[in-house]
């Protein structure tokens, strides 16, 4: 019998039965051979031998229940959880409402049990103290250093770099000048009134649909700029120049496919070809050195990793 089932009194907190999809009420059955995710059945579906996909009726099983004592022989685990939930809902000291919510204990029993096991229990108090000390050790009162960053750059307003970046505002992650910046102008004179004819109403709706498509195109271009790191254009250009001419030509050719394969896969493709080019160059140099040494009467080969 598994004594680690869900202790919540709310049946909706438990997963539904895989046989009838009803809320599970304790005790219920958990298949010990299926999962993850765990395979739960109510007693009715279990007794009629419900089978589903890989689950068979002869599988080993566990009985999920919380009907066992934890801190006091007269209190079950389900009642312990119900007491904690009632105190959290009704407030500490409101023992009458706590007892009314529990339904199985009087207010005197609730107060006595809570004070004995959760307030005056030295083991419980020491555990809380250790947790508090560990939390204070993790969150030490020390200064956290912050360093300024230039990626993306933060140029002054209306500077040359700011105009090159289309007025990008890093704090807002947006642009002063949008793509298709005057798209909203087509809507400024549109007004929907009740006496519009069907044709006029359809025409106005078409203008709104066109405006929505222009907004989608604006967001699509922003996403491409962010995903591919095109905001900091100068940094992007410096990264391109670090490749040899052969790889730069490939980079220029494959640029148009970057938005199809995605930024990460595109960078992996370019980097792999750059590594291949450097390896082929290193192999060529090794062969060239070997031939020169052989012509000079030196007969040995040096292997490079």
What does this entry look like structurally?
The protein is mainly alpha-helical and 305 residues long. It folds into four domains: 1-68, Wheat Germ Agglutinin (Isolectin 2), domain 1; 69-123, Arc Repressor Mutant, subunit A (Orthogonal Bundle); 160-234, no CATH class; 243-295. It has helices spanning 43-47, 77-90, 95-102, 107-119, 122-138, 160-164, 198-227, 233-241, 245-254, 258-261, 263-295; strands spanning 28-31, 40-41, 61-64, 168-169, 174-175. The strands form two sheets. Strands 2-1-3 form a three-stranded antiparallel β-sheet. It has a two-stranded antiparallel ribbon with strand order 4-5. It is elongated and about 80 Å long. It starts with 27 loop residues before the first strand and ends in a 10-residue tail after the last helix. Mean pLDDT is 76; it is low at 1-7 and 298-305. Keywords: Metal-binding, Nucleus, Transcription, Transcription regulation, Zinc, Zinc-finger. It comes from Pan troglodytes (Chimpanzee). This is TADA2A isoform 7. InterPro entries: ADA2-like_ZZ (IPR041983), Homeodomain-like_sf (IPR009057), Myb_dom (IPR017930), SANT/Myb (IPR001005), SANT_dom (IPR017884), TADA2A_B-like_dom (IPR055141), Znf_ZZ (IPR000433), Znf_ZZ_sf (IPR043145). Residues 74-118 form the Myb-like domain.
